[in-house]
Amino acid sequence: MDKFEQTNAEFEQAVAECRDLFEKKLHDYRASWRILRPTALTDQLFIKAKRIRSLEVKGQSLVGEGIRPEFIALVNYGLVGLIQLERGYADTVDVSNSEAMTLYDRHAKEALELMKRKNHDYDEAWRSMRVSSYTDLILTKIERIKEMEDLDGATLVSEGIGANYMDIVNYAVFGLIKLKN
Question: What is the pTM of this model?
Answer without folding.
Answer: 0.96
